[in-house]
Specification:
- 2 copies of one chain form a homodimer.
- Chain A has helices at residues 10-17, 21-29, 36-49, 55-62, 78-93, 107-119, 134-142, 166-179, 196-211, 228-239, 253-266, 284-287, 299-314, and strands at 67-72, 97-102, 124-128, 147-150, 160-164, 185-190, 219-224, 247-250, 275-277, 294-296, 323-325, 328-330.
- The first copy, chain A, is of the alpha/beta class.
- The longest helix of chain A has 16 residues, at 78-93.
- Chain A is elongated and about 85 Å long.
- Mean pLDDT of chain A is 93; it is low at 1-5.
- The first copy, chain A, binds a DNA duplex (30 and 30 nucleotides) through residues 9-11, 19-23, 25-26, 29, 33-35, 38, 53-63.
Amino acid sequence: MNKRSSAPTLQDVARMAKVSTATVSRCFNTPDKVIETTRDRVLEIVEELGYTPHFGGRTLASNRSNTVGAIIPTIDNAIFARGIQAFQETLAQNNVTLLIASSGYDPEREFQQIRSLISQGADGLLLIGHARPIKTYDFLQRRQIPYVVTWNYREDSNSFNVGFDNRKAGSKITNEILKFGHKRIAVITGHTEFNDRALDRLNGVRDAMKSSGISELNLAIISTTYSLKSGADAFEDFMTRKPRPTVIMCGNDVLATGAITRANEMGIKVPYDVSVTGFDDIDLAEVVQPKLTTVHVPHRRMGKSSAKLLLDILNGKQDCQSLELEIEIVLRQSLGNAF
Amino acid sequence: MNKRSSAPTLQDVARMAKVSTATVSRCFNTPDKVIETTRDRVLEIVEELGYTPHFGGRTLASNRSNTVGAIIPTIDNAIFARGIQAFQETLAQNNVTLLIASSGYDPEREFQQIRSLISQGADGLLLIGHARPIKTYDFLQRRQIPYVVTWNYREDSNSFNVGFDNRKAGSKITNEILKFGHKRIAVITGHTEFNDRALDRLNGVRDAMKSSGISELNLAIISTTYSLKSGADAFEDFMTRKPRPTVIMCGNDVLATGAITRANEMGIKVPYDVSVTGFDDIDLAEVVQPKLTTVHVPHRRMGKSSAKLLLDILNGKQDCQSLELEIEIVLRQSLGNAF
DNA sequence: TTGCCTAATGTAAGCGCTTACACTTGACTA
DNA sequence: TAGTCAAGTGTAAGCGCTTACATTAGGCAA
């Protein structure tokens, strides 16, 4: 990597403005401690030189970076995009920069990324979901790293936590489905290892079935990766089984869209031949035909609230609180009566 | 922001391993200059302490950060997600971290973000498109910042550049459309100010029409923001005009999907009543009914190649070359004969 | 006038790291 | 045997910045 040789330094500015480096520094950090005439002169030079403070020097000296990190499973998925965008916007309003890294749903990589972001100077972190190895939590604990867990809310969590209860959400949509008279339920879920959102949703389905007195024997599950094609393939798999399920619940809208697309190709009519539901309520849900009945997740609010909480923690605010958000079921056309 | 007080330092490691700080440092940076027994001892302590090198110190001392920044118009859009994901993966393979910032299509904010990323220590940058104010280029020039422009390829660019020629692409799909006998063409484009991709695509349409001897009077244009709803509204607007266009070309697949969705709602049959085309070939294109005829953009290849080029530049490799990628037209169902 | 206080600014230490240079040791060559 | 060299390690300077503390100057009360 090459040198950033030509970058002007605080020294350069100080020399040209005929003040000490301390004064220049104060112009940035505590402007009201510098008399206006001096400040103007300094800022003029700053402009002229195109001076930008050197981040490394700054963090070293002040032991803070105004940077937080977020580690998300993948960038390439609409599921996270909206929430992260809101998270970032809120941080930006507070002059905090966001570093984004992705783990590819791999806890080991997540751990590395956490270390990497911390050594990059991140003051705090945003993490998705609760499920991660103890050693990761140990590290966070030992290094006293402020962090917020989002995308899932758990009553009993030891972490600061903003999100919705995926288990309740799973139950809620299942109850809705049961109202339509469905008995044979199939679930296409994302892999549940180290993905507590997926796992909790699935357990929510089980909860609801149990409390309605429906045997687990009526529940069929395929777990797969999050892609249109996986959703489509899993759908086809279910449709070749006998007896067919009457409803196919999908772990997110991407899987559900894949399923419906395949249904259309196979000439299977949704919801007349089989119902399909999604989860998330991303744009896709209103694009696919028939439109998806799904769980509406308040992504933007989640991102914004997470940012606020993390900022509060970092600013040492007292009694910071975890926050549970509510979800709603959005009834569209892909869920119909059991036949 | 709070202190990271409890982080162990190089010193701590050195003391516990009974070596100098230089040796510990070498274990990380030039491991083959340290004899194995020493290295093992050091790494053991590193593990035990959960030591992570302090980024600030590191950048200060070495004047490099192994970090590059990317400024994209928005995170919340599938258009960029795939390419950026590939970009990031390639960097990660080379132990380079990616910082992502978003500009919201605003050149002023882009400039700020560039400054911010640079002061964060980014060694180089990825920028989307060529269109930005001179002062931004001046800054990049003056500070000698290595950068790669992507998502558009221009023969005459002064910048390192990986992408496809949006103008040619615009022509190419227009020619395809003309083969289907279309004469009255409507375009729904993103705003073209400081968006050279959109502008070039539009100019490509004009080029193709001109060389086929079709008057500009047969071209209607609406420029709008990139969202499903904007696409839908613009579509409806066009459909109420007389005479109606026979084909609606959309600046990207999101707009096109919005258009088709609205068509379905209005009972307008695509492609029998009107044809619709997109641009990008994201997942959406195969989900919407009818499936989209669109321009396939090699997003992943673009991201990967951009990363490689940027890394080469940063490593001071000689004769780095800009790279033009080819696009292809994907014929699906949304384009039919003019009626 | 003297003494005290405050506001503005300067001085200089040191944040954690890399690296040029110096030193030590042991092996090899002439 | 002395001389040369390379490998492994240590010493210490200094990267750009913040900030505790020191200094200066001017205003005001006694």
